Amino acid sequence: MSLYTFFGCLFTAYGPLLSIFFLYIARDAQLVLLMVCRYAEIQDLLYNRIAVFNVDIFFLRSAFFWLIAMLLSSVIWFAAKPIQNMNTVTILYSVIIQELFRWGLFKLINRAERGLMIVSKNPKSLFNRSVFAFVSGYGFGLTSALISYISTLVQSIGPGVMMCPSCPQATLFFISAITTSLASLQHILWMMLAFEAYHTLPSTIGIIQGIWVIISHLGVSYATLMNSMESLYLGCVYAMIVQLVVLAISTSLVISNLKKHYGEAMFSRNSQ
Amino acid sequence: MCRSNLQSMEATKHLGGVIVVVNSSTPGYPSRPQSYSPESTCPNCEYGLYASDSEQYVWNPNGNGMIYESFDYPIFALNPIDSGSTTAYNQVMKDVQYNSQQNYQNYPLRAVDFSLFMWSAVNSETCLRRGWCQPVGGSSVYSTASQNMTSTDGKPIIVVSATMDSRSIFHDLTLGVENDVSGMVALLAVADALSKSPTPLDTFPKHIIYTNFDGESWGFAGSQRFVDDISTPFVCQNTTTGQNFCPLQGACNNPCVRDTDFTKINFDNIEAVVEFSSVAQSNASGAGFWAHTDDATTSNNLLLSLINTSSQNNTQQQYHIQAASSDGVNRKLPPSSAMSFLKKKRSIASVVIADYQKSLDSYYHSDFDDTIDLASASSAICNVASSTARTLWLAAQGISNGTAPPTVIADCNLVNSLLTCLTYNYSCPLIQQYYTVNNAARVSHYSSVFSFGGNSLLSLFVFNFLGDKNGVTRLNGTSPATCQSIKDCQSNEYCIRRSCVKTFTRYHDAYGTGLEFDHTTGLYTVIDASQPTWSESTWDPTVMRVYTTTSVQHQVVELVIGILWLLSSIGVVWYLRKYLRKTLKVA
Amino acid sequence: MLEHVVGDRNVHDGDTWQNKNSTTAPQLCISSGSTFISNTDRKDLHLFEIMTTALSSTQDEIELQNSDPVPPGDSQCNVCQKPAAFMCSSCGLNGPRYCSTECQSQGWREGHYRLCQGNAQARANAASRASNNTPEPAAAAAQGSIPMVEIRNNETSTEQDEQQEFADELRFYIKQIYLVIQPVVICIILSIFWVKVAFSGTSDYTPVRPSYSIGTSPTTTSGGSDSSSSSAISSLTTALVIVGQIILVTLVIVFLFRRGWIKILIGFFMIVVVGLLGFMSYLLILNLIEVFYIPLDYPTMIFALWNFAVVGLISVFWKSPLWLQQAYLTIMSSLMAFSLTGLEQWTTWMLLGLLAIWDLIAVLCPFGPLRLLIESSRTQQREVPALLYSVNAVWFMASMENHFRISQSFLPKEDHEIGTNWIYQDTGQPTTDAGTSQAQAVTTVETVRSNSPQPLGNNERDRVWNDESGPQGAVIEGHQARDGFTRLRGESVNTFATGQEQNVTTLSAATPNPNRSSHASASAGESETVPADEEDAERSGLKLGLGDFVFYSVLIARAAMYDWITTVCCTVAVLMGLTATIFLLVLWKKALPALPISIAFGIMFYFVAKAVLVPYVGTVCVFGMVAL
């Protein structure tokens, strides 16, 4: 029954995203919605007509940004006909455009955040920036997972399968599902790292994290090329390993960031 | 494909479908069986002349009756006759080979699925009532050179007949070269030969009518209906009020007919029927032709005349016509259209000319009946046509001793091209003379479904050919009046070979006589279940596709991994949330 | 149309009471409200309404009206009907008014105790803040003593308070947006599902609209042929014809409404609803049966369909639980969108484009029919019968009386309206409430209460909010308001002051094109018998016109017919456009059309995705198995 494959791939690819959505974002939607502005800044911002845009559902906005990035890179891909089949070049400019939009998203949120005083639960909590980053990253990850995997997923309902070129024992659907799932998690982490990096940009840690985001994104994308290389036996396993390693490093970086914030928060709380 | 094989496969309970490979006898393919006939042992005997006899002669002892069976699984046929089917065949064979290399166990393996939805339900009556079936049939063609024939002119009629259609398990592959095409070609050759008679045919004391019946494989539908129509007085009850579903703007809408010219044929005047059964001598090794009769006494004169003429005209023994009962066994008539005439009036003289004496051909009504040795077949047909034509020329004038003029002879080149055109290449030059044909090579000889006003490709050609041979071209001055379509001609003329021709050539509806069209509902109803009531189901496009598939265990493993991943991610997120809430008070 | 209807908001925080005898409105109260809004006359009570109305098509306007708290001079004692100078401190402006402690005690006994539960800290704070005239709480208060505070002006407005107000405002907006997006998403998902089923290739019942092809429509150009070159023209003409129908029907409805012939409108809408629920559901069921090989017999299907349609009619036009109404409206929108998917591709796109333009014109231009409709409904103080999807309540006809009576019982005879959900209306008042609806409301209130232990701190209130996420979101706020909580520093309470009825307008612009869904609801005829102030009860919260649902769904369904990737793109685009529109609404505080931005995004994304993104993803992500 090919429905087994369909549900297996569905849960594998979208499992983390779904669980995050239903356990976190949907239930605490107000979390991302609860922005309370300081009055004066509101007035100032209103005249600039920017403030209001902060008060929306963040992950929709980041989804929108990712989509635009994808559309741009696909326009370029479409226009550059001779190199359409060279996935290496395609990956290069696609990733660069995505990173540009990530930076643009940061700029936008930052501009609004400047006017926003986070008062909701934790006054002046420094964690809220992480929360924004998390949700924005979730938007990126969700849209990326949807757009890149949904056609494959729909195909898996039918009785036929395609085998992964580099791991002939596994189906293409399933390997793609794993890749998508890991990539979506990475998008979340990258966004958190990137926001942190851009925020503290002149500092070395910021630069390191920023560079890490770009390099690891490129690395992961190039590594997944191994999935489809027929000549490389078990290429899909190598790609998965690379993804997991990058995931682990990113997670540790993010945790260290959070700990830093935690320390500051404790400090500020203790000092009150 | 025989019953025992299928049954043993069914017994394994793992049979999903069957792909049958039907191929020509070219080298490299598995060879064909010597004889294979899926028909029953006595084809159409329940509708024939001897249906009520206690013992009927078994004409098809090789028959295994598969054609009447129904199966619970799809059966598809692959016959690599053109590029498309060859590609499909190659792909399937490659996949079969791949699977056998993997011992049918090492997944991923190649799989195939079939899609062939048929709408039919229960039986003909129910299916026709619901509108999901259509009656099997087509258009018969009859033609005569006697343009002024009326039903009251008292002239006897000689009917020359052949079958237009054939039958096999896979209707798209039906050719029936030996079975019906040979007879049809012989008929057309006779018409051509007689048209070269120095004395015009309409001056003969007897009429000669050429009839080419469609739907004969399905209980003699065409000939039965024709005989019924010309033997019962036709009463037209034109319905002007209320709804009438007759799609023809013809002579009469209740009953729904194209024209009423068949009333000019008086059944009582028919005195003889000469029919061509299979006459290609494809597997007869020089054994000659056999003339079958029902009752030797009534048909004696005709029979003797045929025998004499053929022996006079032919030096070669293999083309001599002999009486089929010359070995003392009276087998009576083989399944043929002549039976329909005799059912109504047993005293009609009837002769069925065939190249078999004791049993039907080995590939009777089978998909294998698609090859022919063009040279030998055309010469056989040519000869028998000549003999018959010359016999008829004498018989139609009532001359018992004599010789037909030398012009009355079949044109062997014509026979050759007819054979090619009607089997392998419908776009041949001969047919192009009559009308333009594009992209039609091998035309199926399955009669398909009946529709009012619809003509199959074969009917169309026979109509044009006979209309040309039996027609009078109108002259415009000294040159023939040209036309591009029938609209350019006068009302009783047809545009044949691009000139306006006046001819008594007509189509006639052919579908089971057990069915009748109800003009008030537009549906067919069963009026007599003892007569043929064959109908064909409406079907959705049939698709067969091959693909790679993985084993069920593999899929279950994927599902389990997915569920585990989902559950673990739910757990992780939940835990993280709690933790972050408690310690960092951030979530 | 996107219109924000917030009932009557009490835009002051806990520290500002209005002295009813004072004629000057507190500066603060108004300012925080009017900061957002505009410089309206403070004497007028404007209702802060975000209401999305719009029958069917393009009537998407965003109207925003300002609301100021009621001048204090209008208070009457709840018990003795004399002019009241005090009110329950916990309940604030939304609470009952009393002229004396005796009245307060009596009022407490009579039922206010159920609604006003003291919060000891709140009391203490209120006592400390209310520096004068805090009489002894009535001894009879079983649940503790609630101080009464004088209704007076409080001129001091701290930044914190303003901020709180603002925060409440924003939070309310966001909540409403969130609640609005849910049904939109559900409708979109339903439409995608119908489209996938009907156009899967195995169904014979795909909806096909008779298109006004060249030669048959009077508006087509002569000499058109069936060649592909003129298919664009035929699509355009078809789209123009359909838009023309919409415009025509809009004008008819405006005309009918202005003339006051509401019953004709209602009858017409009922016919449309029945037709939609009956016929389109039938078509849909046929599709489902055919695609999924469901063996279903006619009697069962007719029985089910009949019930479905009749229940839908009742729930939309009469009364029913809110969730049922919302469900039916969502389903009807998706059915309408499903029927529109029968149009040809280019016809659909042109239709959407023309509708966006029409929406702009009709809403923004001074002579636009929708604007006229809104104004006339305002001047007539009558509801435009229309179908609105309301987050909090759905307009429906006559039987609102019972519900509204509850609210009226709570209020003195004038303008203080509770601009929140009817459900929550306080039921403790032993007034002329009808039994059943009251009981219903009681149970609802009780349930609500049990979820929200008092006092609520910040967290708890939010939790309450979470638990009651959904249409009753606003309930809680009102409920809290009546619970005797005073607003503390740091706490934000969204209480709504009532406003004058005449400024309460429900907007709905109806454009019932017979081919479109427009569900009409509340009859103006019926509502004439209902005192206007009761209608406010339902005004709060977001109301979305069903035309928005329908055309969003049409766009996405059309995208779904091509590929899943375009579906996702267009969904994101449309939702993005919707949120952008809502925020423009907040910014500009005037009627804005909701269709143009979403449709512009949607169309652009569809064509770019179809041409470029789909092959790109196919090459890179599907076959290349690259993670991007």
TrEMBL record, chain A:
Question: Which segment of the chain is annotated as a signal peptide?
Answer: none
- According to Swiss-Prot or TrEMBL, what is its membrane topology? Multi-pass membrane protein
Transmembrane stretches, start-end: 6-26, 58-79, 91-109, 130-150, 170-193, 205-225, 231-255
Can you supply a Gene Ontology BP term from the record?
Answer: protein processing
Compartments where found = Membrane
Identify the main location. membrane
Q: Which keywords fit this entry according to its UniProt record? A: Membrane, Notch signaling pathway, Transmembrane, Transmembrane helix
GO (cellular component) term, any one: membrane
Q: Which family does it belong to?
A: Belongs to the APH-1 family.
Name of this protein? Uncharacterized protein
- Native source species: Mortierella isabellina (Filamentous fungus)
Automatic annotation (TrEMBL), chain B:
The GO biological-process annotations, alphabetized, read as: protein processing
For membrane topology, the record states:
Single-pass type I membrane protein
On whether Signal is a keyword of this UniProt record, the answer is yes
Keyword Metal-binding among UniProt keywords: no
Q: Where in the cell is it found?
A: Membrane
Q: What is its main location?
A: membrane
Q: Which organism is it from?
A: Mortierella isabellina (Filamentous fungus)
Q: Which named protein is this? A: Nicastrin
Which is one Pfam family of this protein? Nicastrin
This protein's superkingdom?
Answer: Eukaryota
Q: Which family does it belong to?
A: Belongs to the nicastrin family.
Q: Where in this chain does the record put each Nicastrin small lobe domain?
A: 3-119
Instruction: Give TM regions.
Output: 556-576
Q: Which GO terms describe its cellular component?
A: plasma membrane
Keyword terms, alphabetized: Glycoprotein, Membrane, Notch signaling pathway, Signal, Transmembrane, Transmembrane helix
What SUPFAM superfamilies does this protein map onto?
Answer: Zn-dependent exopeptidases
TrEMBL record, chain C:
- Alphabetic keyword roster: Endoplasmic reticulum, Golgi apparatus, Hydrolase, Membrane, Metal-binding, Notch signaling pathway, Protease, Transmembrane, Transmembrane helix, Zinc, Zinc-finger
What the entry lists under Gene3D superfamilies is as follows: 6.10.140.2220, Presenilin (1.10.472.100)
Report domain MYND-type positions: 77-116
Supply the PROSITE patterns for this chain.
ZF_MYND_2
What is the organism of origin for this protein?
Answer: Mortierella isabellina (Filamentous fungus)
- Name of the protein: Presenilin
- GO cellular component terms, A-Z: endoplasmic reticulum membrane; gamma-secretase complex; Golgi membrane
Q: Which Pfam families match?
A: Presenilin, zf-MYND
Assembly behavior: Homodimer. Component of the gamma-secretase complex, a complex composed of a presenilin homodimer, nicastrin, aph1 and pen2.
> Which portions of the sequence form the region Disordered?
425-481, 499-536
Could you tell me the superkingdom of the organism this chain comes from?
Eukaryota
Family that this chain belongs to: Belongs to the peptidase A22A family.
Could you tell me the membrane topology recorded for this protein?
Answer: Multi-pass membrane protein
Where is it chiefly localized? endoplasmic reticulum
Give the EC number(s) listed in the UniProt record. 3.4.23.-
Q: Which GO MF terms does the UniProt record name? A: aspartic endopeptidase activity, intramembrane cleaving; zinc ion binding
Comp. bias intervals (Polar residues) = 425-457, 499-516
What is the stated purpose of this protein?
A: Probable subunit of the gamma-secretase complex, an endoprotease complex that catalyzes the intramembrane cleavage of integral membrane proteins such as Notch receptors. Probable catalytic subunit of the gamma-secretase complex, an endoprotease complex that catalyzes the intramembrane cleavage of integral membrane proteins such as Notch receptors. Requires the other members of the gamma-secretase complex to have a protease activity.
